Each structure stands twice: as structure tokens, then as C-alpha cells.
Amino acid sequence: MTVRGITKRFPGVTANDAIDFEVLQGEIHALLGENGAGKSTLSNILTGLYRPDEGEIYLRGQAVQFHAPRDAIAAGIGMVHQHFRLAASFTVAENLVLGHRDAADRGLLLEPDVIDGRINELARRYRMPVNPRARIWQLSVGEQQRVEILKVLYRGARVLILDEPTSQLTPQEANDLFQTLRLMAGEGRAIIFISHKLDEVMAISNRVTVLRRGKVVGTVPRALTTTRELARMMVGRDVVFTQKKEGAAKDGRQVALELRNVSARGDLGVPALHDVDLTVHMGEIVGVAGVAGNGQRELAEVITGMRHRTAGTVLVAGRPTRGGDPLEAIRRGIAYVPDDRLGTGVAPSLSVAENLVLKAFRQSPISTQGFLHPRRIRSNALRLMQRFNIGAASPDTPTRQLSGGNIQKVLLARELSGNPRVLVASSPTSGLDVAATDAVRGLLLDAANGGVGTLLISEDLEEIFALADRIAVLYNGRITGILDRQQAHIEQIGLMMAGAA
Amino acid sequence: MISIERRLTEAPWLVVAVPAGSLVAAVILSGLILLVTGHDPIATWGRLLDRGFFSEGAMSATLVTATPLLLTGLAAAAAFRMQTWNIGAEGQLYLGAVGASGAGIALADRPAVIIIPAMIVAGIISGAAWAAIPGVLRAYTRTSEIITSLMLNYVAGLVMSYLIFNSHSYWRDLSTFTARVFPQGKYLSPAATWPSLGIAGIAIPLGFLVGIVAAGILWLIYSLTRFGFEARVIGDSRQAAHYAGMRTRRKIVAVMALSGAMAGIGGASEIGDFRHVLDPRGLQQAGFGYAGIVVAALARLNPFAVVVVAVLLGGLSNAGFSLQGATFPAGLVGTLQGLILFCALAGELLVHYRIRFRRGAAASPPATKPAPVGAA
Lengths: 501, 376
Known about the structure:
heterodimer; A: 6-stranded mixed sheet; 6-stranded mixed sheet; 17 helices; B: mainly alpha; two-stranded antiparallel sheet; 4 strands; about 70% helix
């Protein structure tokens, strides 16, 4: 597949600017770039979701035009999205044939045995074991991704595009995925691997094309480049994350947050958190490592009152909480940066100024006797926007128009300006670019230096190792170990995350 | 090829230009229909404006029609602002009328200064209580308030009919033989007739004035109080509201009650300003509650715009009645009114979206191209 001069413009931004790019049969070609570099736009063009304003796509030398996603599918291009597009209550087999017509599909009736046979054959060939009759909601994230890949293969894709495929996988699952990808490439399929993680790109790809601000910076063979060079191409300057926690927390500090034998149920009513014991001292950052779905969300929500606990005690500064009441948690000084920042952390249509008082609106000086004071809300916003370096056109800008990094700064500005005792930060830098990540980490460290006890829940081990004083690993709703950072090794933590240690 | 794309920014001038454009479209379309059916468009439009607003007494009559529209419009706006879909202003208005007429009958021999405030309060309480039912169901059992509030409209209509036609209730007039054979409600004492304010020859009903005050209060609540702030956050994202420690359930009930209270005042004003008797058939035929939804939508949920839209629609509706006659069928009146509403509501789309016409896929104009719907 070859792409020549692809340009796509959105108001005020050229998302793709004269992109040239090719992927050969049997090649794994990485598309590397920061968020907003134009990777998603390009993949949406390749799969027929967007139409390019200019430029051509050639498949095996033939110019092609996609008017709709089904044209791209018919031409043998398949996309595995970062956020899976599966119908949760349907079976694996049903999801594979959904919207797809072929010989196994006689009018309105499906032939389950034929479909199951084909799925099993594909699964065997690519070493992706999966039960065709299982329902999607019963599967783990890794298994769901297998279904997504099988779906694409089932439709006969010769070119596979994978968008950040490892973002929700354990290191082991990611390794399995890489095996599968190599097998597929070995058969002559072309694979486009979209990522912003340098080590992955170095591990899997044959060639790397780097995008920055919608333009191709360059294409290099993996063998002739280094992580450092790729990072420089991606960001446009030499970067390393500068924010790092210095030294260990001093002993003898007061306990900010303590959990004793805490258990809770998940959204589906099944126990998701078992007998968790955890202590966070003032000024300390405790990292909680683990693959998403192992109780992180429940842990964060139990502490912040958004979820009822079924057993145990949560103590803030030595005093127990009733639990199950976000307002109580706020009043007791628990700040929370949720992982779903746009849906939960802010009211997206409300202005930046309003979101900055989402919790403080109850108190003087923001409101007195039930009435708000718009001027104080505005001056509060201007002050915080300056102090936290929030890039918004004005305090009246609807928050959803901000970039991810700036939304996160709004959240942190609000949470930290409330002078909390405890901060629970869930995946605080996921989806942020390098500069924003560095800024957010800096804010977390400043807060810790100011005495806030921080619980940092993250899947990014590098982040946990950079920031945390102690590291707790959460697996299947249990803390499987707590280590001092100085004594922990990244491989060991990785194994514990996968339940292997 | 035609595509509809979301505007990334909504230019302020559109808010004025689009309704004006919609009106022009409505005039042209209805003009065509009038020509085809053999009527003079310009004369018809002239008569429409004349009968609706400018001729002797037209404005006073329009305000009488506009009053319930204003209050049910506020009811819809109050609830919709929090994304709570109260479709039950119709039933809440009936209950407001029941409450207000009950208060009026009970206090028949008291002076106006006691009866009239009592009627307003009774209307508020009855409407709010009726609206609280779907509110409680929504907040505590997650039942769709759209369905429950809509269904309660029919219940409210039947309650009202029962009180007058199917029972010897407190509201029914049983004083004379004819009243026993042909059921009707008890008429209120003259002291219960709401006064109107005369300005420049136009009689402004008390209910309309109360409605303007209510619009002001609603605006104040939503823009300057803690309560309104919480309601807006809940309307935008219930998750975010829960996260920020807001009591979302109580707030849903409270906003439904606030909405019902507005419709309840509308019912009270129908009794006090206009009917002076609980008149189930008349109220049910009018359909003010449903029209209020249209008023709120056209006003983009702004309480002050609700006042203006209610007057315009009130005039349109009154003019329609006086247009129809031997040469001008009622169906044509309805067609004209429908066209105007249709154009106005369709025009709303253009404030948020733009329509692009393009030839083929290639050679698109540069630079200002918005994202397709759904991508923004």
C-alpha cells in the first residue's frame, strides 16, 4: 500500500499535510507520533472513514478511492481500534459476522458451525485461542483484542492497521500480540502499527515513519535507528522526562490515608476488591501498579466515596470515614483526579471557570447564602489559569474544547487549590503528550512536597518508577505486594501485575 | 453531494440571522401555498399581523393566549435546562387549575387580596406535587420521566373530568336543576377574578405579569444560585455531578417540582384570568402544555426569550382563529401556523450545523472545513 500527498484539513488545523508513506507486503511498519500528530486522522483516511482533501491511495499499484468504510474493508484493509468496537452481549462468532456478508450467511440465517469452524481455524493459525461461543463481556481485555484482530482477519484483510494495540495489555499479553503480528507479516500481510511508545516500536517494527504536527518527519529502518533518535524526531527536540521524585519520604511522618481490609464490588456486582490494606503518609507518593480492570477503579472510588465499600475501614488523618459519599470525602480533604477526565472529572460543556469551582462553589468566597458570585468565580479562574499554566482562550471557554493536557491541568488546579490532605490520581497522564505529561508529573510532585499524601494509580510503570516512593501491585482486586522503589525492579513488578509472582 | 457538518464555533450573529432567515423562508413557502389556493399572500399576511397584534384589542387577546404558553414554556425550559425531560406541563397545568379553583371556591367570601394569592399558591403547590411524581420515579427508580410525565397528563385530564362530570365533587356546581343535568364547575366569586394592568390601551393579565416575574426568578436561579449551578452540572454530566458531591436525586425531584410549579401557575391563571371555573374540556382542547415545549425550544431555553416567543405564538394562534371563515378554511390556517413553526425549528439546526454542497470528493475548498458530524 502506498500513500501519496495525503492532506486533510479541519478548521484551523491541517491534520495531515502531504503525507507520503508506504507499507510493503510482509512488513510491520510503525507509525510513530505524539497525540495530535495526525496518526488517527491518517488511519481514518486509510480505512475510508474520512476522505482526504488531496492525495492518492494505491493498493498493489492501483489507485483506489474509499467512499465509506465498507469500500476499505472490501479492498482488504482492516483496522483494530484502540477502543474496541464489539457488541458486549453478543458472542465472539456473532461479532465476527456482524455487518459482514459471505457464504456462511444465507439470507437472514447464520450457519454457526461453519462460522465456528473458520474462527477455530484462524485462531489456531495465529495462536490466538478464543471460544467462538463466549460472550464478549465475559472476556478479558486481551481476549477482546484477539476478537478484534480475528474480526479483521475473518474479513480477509491483507493490510492491518492497529491503533495503540498494547495500551491496555499486560507486558506478557503484548508479547503474545507481537508473536501473532510477526506470524501474520510472515504470511505476506502488511501491518501498520500505530503507537507513541518508543520501546514497542523498536521491538516490533521493520521500518518506522514518524509524524509530527501532521507532517512526515521521516521514515527510517528500525535497524538503523535508536530510541533516542526516534524520540527526537517525534518531539522535535531532545526530551527526557525531567520530573523525578528525589530521595525517599522521611520516616515518622503522619499517616494521611489508611485502608484496613477494604473490600468492594464492581459495576456488575461481583467482588472486585478484596481485603486491601494500604497506608499513605503525608508527602508520600504510593504508586498502584496493575493492568486496568484489576480493581483500580474500585479502589479509587471507594476512597473518594463514589462507591460503597462492602467491608473494612478507610481512615483519613486517623479518623474513619462513613464512605459511599463523595461530599464527605471532599470535606475530609480527599482530592480525586479520575481516569475518565472528560466525563467524570469535569462537566464538559460548562466553562473552565465553572469547572474550576465544581467543588468550591459551596463555600465562601465563591458563594454565600446560596448565591454565587460571578466576579469571584472569574477571578478565581484567572488566578488558577495563570498559576497552573492552563492554556484556555478565556475562563468562559467550554472545557471540552481544551486539549487533554489542559483539561487535566484544570482538574489538578481545582483539586490542588482545595488544599487536600490526600490526592487520588488515576492514570493522570494517559493520553497526554510529552510536554503535558511532564507538567502533570511536576504538579503531582509539588503537591507531595507540600505534604499531600498521594495515591498514584497508573498502568505506566515508567511513571510509577519516576514518581512513587513505594509501589503497590494490584492484581485481581488484591494487593499482591508493596515494595520500596529503591528495591523494586520493573520486570518483577511486571510479573506481579500479571499475577505470576 | 450534500453533507451536514457540525459547526465548531457558533457565531453570535447566527442567533439573530437564523431566526430571521427562517421567518423569510416561512413567508415564501406559505406565500406559495396561498397563491396556489387562490388567496392573496400579502393581504393574508397583513390580516394575520393585524388580527394578531395591531387591531383594536388584538394585543390584549394575544396576551391572554400567551399567558399559559409563557408559563408552560418556562416549565419546559426549567426542566430541559437540566436535561430532565418533563413532558407533563399539560397535566401539571390541569392540576394547577384544579388547585387554584379549589382555593377560589373555598375562599369565595374573602376579599381579592386573600383569594388571588391563595389561588397562585394553590396552583404552584398542585403543579409541583404532580410533577414531583415523575421526578421521584426518575431519581429513585430510574424510570424515564418522559414516559411517566406524559402518561400522567392523561391521568390529570381524567381527574379533572371526574371532578366535574363523573362525581358530585367539591368543584361541581349542583346548585340548580340544569347544572345537575348538564354538569359544570362552580363559578368563582367576582373577587377571585384576577385584575389586569392597562398600559397604552393594552390589558396585561395578572398571570402574564406573574409569568414575567417567574421568568426573572428562573433566570436568577439558573445563573446566580448554587442550586442552579448544581442543576447545570447535573444536566451536563451526572457522573461529574456525583463526583463533585452533588445530591443528584434530590435535585432531579426539586427541578421537576420547580418545572411543575411554573405550569401550575399557568393553570391558576387560566382560572383566575380567563375561565373563572374549572373547565376540563376547554383546558384539554387548548393543549397549552405541549405548546409550551415548542415555546421553550424556540426560545432556546432562555427564560426571557420564552416571554417573547409566547407572545408571538399567542398572536399567531389568535390571528389564526379570526382568519378562518367561509373563504379561508381552518385547515389552511393550521398549515400556515405549522409552516412558521416548522421553519423556525428547522432553522435551529443551522445554528449548530452547516450544510455543505460539494461536487465530487476532490477539490474541496481549503482551510475552513469543519469536522464531520460526530468527529468533533
